[in-house]
Amino acid sequence: MLGLLVVSGCGSSMGNVEGTVKYQGKAVKSGMLMFIPPQGPPTYAEIKNDGSYAAADVPPGEIKVVVNSPDPRGPTIREGSPLRDVQKNKPPPDPNVLKEWFPLPAEYGDMETTKLKITVTSGKNQIPLELK
Predict the structure, then answer these.
(1) 80 Cβ contact partners less than 8 Å away, ≥ 6 residues apart
(2) Which range of residues forms the domain containing residue 111?
(3) Structurally, how many domains does the chain consist of?
(4) What is the value of pTM for the model shown?
(5) Less packed terminus of the chain by CB within 10 Å, N or C?
(6) Residue 30: pLDDT above 90?
(7) Residues 64, 70, 22, 35: what is their CA dihedral angle, to the nearest 10 degrees?
(8) What is the CATH number of the domain that holds 63?
(9) Residue 129 to residues 9, 46, 52, 57: CA-CA distances in angstroms?
(10) Residue 130 pLDDT > 80, yes or no?
């Protein structure tokens, strides 16, 4: 009778990345980050209203980062559009975020034009993102 031995690794080789997002020294108050590895699917993280973020299971290596921080008021939708009801049912944005939000350069929000890259190792990574 043949036995089958299965050995599983201890721990993950993926990285957990956390830090803050700043543009010209000011905290980015809302948005999303997309971490794009050379191969495989991207990983996403929300930017919280204090500028912090946390992403789990990011592959190790050099990772391209896309930063999106759209206007928290959302697009203006004309009266009579069916999307107007969707917008009305959305909770209002945090007033502090509205007051302190600012647009980012478009290059950071596009996977083709962003020059922002980080190096991720397995385990915990503390990586502040400083946009200029």
Answers:
(1) none
(2) 15-71+102-123
(3) 1
(4) 0.80
(5) N
(6) yes
(7) -20
(8) 2.60.40
(9) 31, 13, 10, 18
(10) yes
